[in-house]
């Protein structure tokens, strides 16, 4: 590449015409300038995108996805492996420029031209790492098909960057292609983002479902520790079935609220305790999960649990303020039929449920 950082106006006439034609994506003028003997490998400053960068016209065309212009320049002898000679992106090839800016058609033209898809810049890495970091999934696929090596030492941190930037699907594509990655970190991120298919895939590979985050909490504790978000139920189920431990009974609470009796049964089979039944009763009653209450009644009728469930069902909308509501009435009725004491008082009060109903 001829190193000349002069603005286009100071270049030989044919070169200046070619530079302007590339900038304007005027294919006819590009072809005319080439016929007039313009130097297709002359380096100029990229006045539009980054004036600090001295690069080839092919860089400019690829950065802006002028694939037709790129093809014409390559056919006229432009060096498809040329590198930026100065500026913050020194060493960047047209392929890496196209990958960073997401210009897939330009990437495909360069691949067809036979460029080295595994070349790595000293600071910014390979074309594959740049496409992945910027979230360009289709380009990642193109590069892998063209022979990009995700296991190259230059890509050692690639998956970590991608997963940290929430590009989880791309991360798994790279992992499946052989890129090194931290499966436990990926599982934490995928679960937090509610990416069930990725969670399922990682668990199928044997990733530890009990991995803890930097705060010492498991994924199950994080997902089930707050208000019940039923949208996460598939991820919670996958973790439980992969052997995740419900160390503080939060999954019992979560699955009872969500009405997932199948998973609740699994948790109870692992450890059935008075505390777990109490949590399940209260959570199912508050959420109006009649089928869960029926099953609990068939397994355990501890008077304290029945009373707490009755209290929660009667005042589920707004505890101690709102009276019995339509959705929880079947549960109230069911609990009373199975021995819940309507005249009992809560441990913190001398008032019965009837008192609460009248005060509401």
UniProtKB/TrEMBL annotation:
Database matches in InterPro entries:
Ankyrin_rpt, Ankyrin_rpt-contain_sf, Multifunctional_regulatory
Q: Keywords for this entry?
A: ANK repeat, Repeat
Q: Which Gene3D superfamilies match?
A: Ankyrin repeat-containing domain
Q: Which sections of the protein are ANK repeats?
A: 90-122, 182-214
For the keyword Ligase, the answer is no
Query: By what name is this protein known?
Result: Uncharacterized protein
Species of origin: Capsaspora owczarzaki (strain ATCC 30864)
């Amino acid at each position: 590449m001829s190193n000349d950082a002069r603005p286009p106006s100071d270049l030989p006439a044919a070169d200046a015409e070619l530079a302007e034609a590339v900038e304007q994506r005027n294919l006819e003028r590009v072809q005319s300038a080439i016929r007039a003997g313009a130097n297709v490998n002359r380096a100029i400053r990229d006045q539009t995108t980054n004036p600090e960068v001295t690069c080839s016209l092919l860089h400019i065309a690829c950065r802006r996805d002028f694939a037709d212009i790129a093809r014409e320049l390559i056919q006229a002898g432009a060096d498809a492996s040329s590198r930026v000679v100065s500026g913050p992106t020194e060493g960047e090839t047209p392929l890496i420029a196209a990958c960073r800016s997401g210009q897939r058609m330009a990437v495909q033209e360069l691949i067809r031209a036979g460029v080295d898809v595994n070349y790595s810049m000293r600071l910014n890495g390979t074309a594959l790492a740049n496409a992945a970091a910027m979230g360009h999934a289709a380009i990642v696929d193109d590069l892998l098909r063209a022979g990009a090596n995700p296991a190259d030492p230059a890509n050692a941190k690639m998956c970590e960057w991608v997963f940290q930037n929430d590009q989880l699907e791309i991360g798994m594509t790279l992992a499946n292609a052989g890129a090194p990655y931290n499966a436990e970190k990926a599982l934490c991120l995928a679960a937090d983002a509610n990416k069930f298919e990725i969670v399922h895939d990682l668990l199928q590979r044997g990733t530890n479902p009990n991995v803890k985050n930097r705060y010492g909490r498991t994924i199950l504790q994080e997902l089930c520790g707050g208000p019940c978000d039923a949208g996460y139920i598939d991820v919670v189920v996958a973790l439980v079935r992969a052997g995740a431990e419900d160390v503080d009974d939060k999954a019992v609470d979560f699955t009872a609220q969500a009405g997932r009796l199948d998973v609740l049964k699994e948790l109870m089979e692992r450890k059935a305790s008075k505390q777990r039944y109490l949590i399940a009763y209260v959570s199912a009653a508050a959420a109006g999960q009649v089928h869960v209450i029926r099953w609990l009644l068939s397994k355990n009728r501890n008077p304290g649990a029945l009373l707490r469930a009755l209290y929660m069902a009667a005042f589920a909308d707004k505890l101690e303020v709102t009276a019995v509501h339509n959705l929880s009435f079947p549960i109230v009725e069911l609990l009373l039929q199975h021995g819940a004491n309507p005249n009992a008082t809560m441990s913190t009060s001398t008032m019965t449920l009837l008192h609460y109903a009248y005060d509401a």
